[in-house]
């Protein structure tokens, strides 16, 4: 019987001891926490005006690396959405707008200046610096965020740390530590990773029935 003992837990991290599961499966949970659990990240940016010293491409890259709060109950991966549209829809993408201008003195543009159409899906912190504007410089853009997986790009990784440590190989006991980037609670990352492993195993068993 598989047993899970929580040693430490808060919004950003969780440490558990898993008993009664082979190391390969425990390690799959660790890997899925990094690469398979989806999170929101800015993926497309439409630059309306940019008179800053930062190139459009670099600005878009910086925006993509800002962790966003994620709601996995209300949003789906673009490839799983019924809209089948490359532009997306309210179920698979979120619009964030940035409109910043330095008038008569230097201005630092922060993540908190991004205005999201969804009050929940927003940067995990308002104080992440994006760019510094000199007087009379302007940035206006539309940024589109979508769900993605860490195996596609690091910006979709929900974890900053995901470590598995063996405690007893004979008793199949392991310690798993997960630290969240802030997009999802650490406990939800663990739960979703287990659900993904379970689904993949069921899919494998179903497909194996056709093998003679």
Question: Could you describe the 3D structure shown?
Answer:
- By secondary structure, the chain is an alpha+beta fold.
- The protein folds into 2 domains: 80 residues, Gyrase A, domain 2; 109 residues, DNA-directed RNA polymerase, insert domain (RNA Polymerase Alpha Subunit, Chain A, domain 2), CATH 2.170.120.
- Helix content is 21%, strand content 35%.
- The protein is built from 3 helices and 10 strands.
- A hairpin with a 3-residue loop joins strand 1 and strand 2.
- Helix 1 crosses helix 3.
- The longest helix is centred in the last third of the chain and has 23 residues.
- It is elongated, with a radius of gyration of 20 Å.
């Amino acid at each position: 019987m598989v047993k899970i003992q929580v040693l430490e837990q808060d919004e950003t991290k969780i440490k558990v001891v898993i008993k009664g599961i082979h190391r390969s499966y425990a390690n799959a949970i660790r890997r899925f926490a990094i690469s398979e659990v989806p999170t929101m990240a800015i993926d497309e940016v439409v630059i309306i005006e940019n008179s800053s010293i930062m190139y459009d491409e670099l600005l878009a890259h910086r925006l993509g690396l800002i962790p966003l709060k994620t709601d996995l109950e209300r949003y789906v991966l673009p490839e799983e959405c019924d809209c089948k549209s490359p532009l997306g829809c309210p179920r698979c993408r979120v619009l964030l707008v940035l409109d910043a201008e330095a008038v008569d003195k230097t201005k630092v543009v922060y993540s908190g200046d991004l205005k999201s159409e969804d009050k929940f899906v927003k940067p995990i912190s308002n104080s992440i610096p994006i760019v510094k504007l000199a007087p009379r410089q302007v940035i206006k853009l539309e940024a589109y965020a979508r769900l993605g997986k860490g195996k596609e790009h690091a910006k979709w990784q929900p974890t900053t740390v995901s470590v598995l440590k063996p405690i007893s190989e004979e008793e199949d006991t392991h310690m798993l530590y997960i630290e969240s980037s802030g997009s999802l609670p650490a406990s939800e990352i663990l739960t979703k990773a287990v659900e993904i492993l379970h689904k993949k195993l069921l899919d494998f068993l179903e497909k194996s029935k056709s093998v003679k």
